[in-house]
Amino acid sequence: xxxxxxxxxxxxxxxxxxxxxxxxxxxxLTARCWTRTTVTAMNWGGDMMRAVEVxxxxxxxxxxxxxxxxxxxxxxxxSLAVSLTDAGAIVFDxxxxxxxxxxxxxxxxxxxxxxLWHVARLGxxxxxxxxxxxxxxxxxxxxxxxxxxxxxxxxx
Length: 156
Description:
The structure is a single chain. It is built from four helices and five strands, in the order E-H-H-E-E-H-H-E-E. It is globular, with a radius of gyration of 15 Å. It has helices spanning 26-42, 48-65, 104-109, 115-121; strands spanning 13-22, 77-85, 90-96, 125-129, 137-143. 33% of the residues are buried. By secondary structure, the chain is of the alpha+beta class. The longest helix is centred in the middle third of the chain and has 18 residues, at 48-65. The protein has a five-stranded antiparallel β-sheet with strand order 1-2-3-5-4, with helices on one face. Residues 1-7 and 147-156 have low confidence and may be disordered. A hairpin with a 7-residue loop joins strand 4 (125-129) and strand 5 (137-143). Helix 1 packs antiparallel against helix 2 and helix 2 (48-65) packs antiparallel against helix 4.
């Protein structure tokens, strides 16, 4: 886990938008549409398809692993936030209600599923942290504008 204060979203945040998503698979379509609209309105200079794919993988991961199964389906929720920074980066935060991430290293390496590994392969810097208030955790992906080099997923 990375401490929140060490998570530089690649510059000062210029604008931030947040939405709540249902904690079911339908959230992926909602997140994709919301991301396209929001990132377009923010006039981000990066690859929209890559941004939407990053969000889709983060939300899918949150739906699958970040919500307690004992909570009724209609009460399961995720939060999705997008921020644009003065350095031209776009920051995606997906917040869920499970505060643990015991397999983080394996997930990033692709040893336990391919979702977060794929997010890193798309060029995002992927981290997670516990919020200052409330429960749960936040998984963050930061994408730079197209001029940034694409980073690769860590290898073992």
